[in-house]
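User:
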Amino acid sequence: QVQLVESGGGLVQPGGFLRLSCAASGFAFGMARMSWFRQAPGKERELVATIVSDGFNSEYADSVKGRFTISRDNDKNILNLQMNSLKPEDTAVYYCNTPWSTLDWGQGTQVTVSS
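Assistant: Predicted structure:
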């Protein structure tokens, strides 16, 4: 059974940082390209960052480039997202999935950036 469990969200002030994690199980995580998505209130879910299976290449949305870093630990089946210099517009529920959203969505983790 495929399971994605996101964690690490919270309330942070502008300019602050958070580190999100996604614990994956039930599929060949180490062979899968993985992504982080986010969905802000009233907006469609958007792709934030993608990392290839071996972790050596990644891509980012222009809105987060230079501030966010995606990484993975294939031994532990964990996907991470280090978020620095957070802005209020980063407020959203964050999810992990394949870039094509082929897996059942997890519950997500709420990130709120506010003073």
